[in-house]
Design brief:
The radius of gyration is 16 Å and the shape is elongated. The protein is α+β, with helices and mostly antiparallel strands. Helix 2 packs antiparallel against helix 3 and helix 3 packs parallel to helix 5. It has a 3-stranded mixed sheet with strand order 1-2-3. The protein has one domain: TIM Barrel (Alpha-Beta Barrel), CATH 3.20.20.450. It has 5 helices and 3 strands, in the order αββααβαα.
């Protein structure tokens, strides 16, 4: 392992251990209805890290065998933040099919977090979470 690879490995390990990810939510707009239909969850690594870019972040995770771990953490962090914003629209994720785990098994914890955090003030569930097929 080169010095640069080792530095990336350490940075990735820190990001995963401390959930140092920043979710961003890009609106999905319905032109027909002229409103926000939902949000696409996007993720960034720490701004002071060479893994800030999602391309570098996911590449490092893939090279170090931690892609599934990163993918699940991204969902959990995004769902948690989305719930704190009290947004009741749909949230959409890009997932990594090559991460090597069953989606239904792997996303259970993230989906439970979503259900807890996206209750409307009247106690009813919010709009649905879009689960990949």
């Amino acid at each position: 392992m080169t010095k640069d690879e080792y530095t990336q490995f350490q940075s990735l390990d820190d990001i995963l251990q401390n959930a140092r990810l920043t979710p961003m939510f890009q609106p999905i707009v319905s032109i027909k209805e002229n409103n926000i239909y939902g949000y696409e969850a996007l993720i960034r690594g720490p701004s002071d890290s060479p893994l800030h870019s999602p391309i570098n972040l996911f590449d490092a995770a893939s090279r170090h065998g931690r892609l599934a771990e990163l993918d699940l953490l991204c969902r959990e962090v995004a769902i948690t933040q989305f719930g704190l914003f009290e947004l009741y629209e749909l949230i959409d994720f890009n997932t990594i099919k090559s991460a090597g785990y069953s989606y239904r098994d792997g996303a259970g914890k993230a989906y439970d977090t979503y259900k807890l955090l996206t209750k409307k003030p009247d106690g009813k569930s919010s709009s649905p979470l879009r689960l990949p097929k």
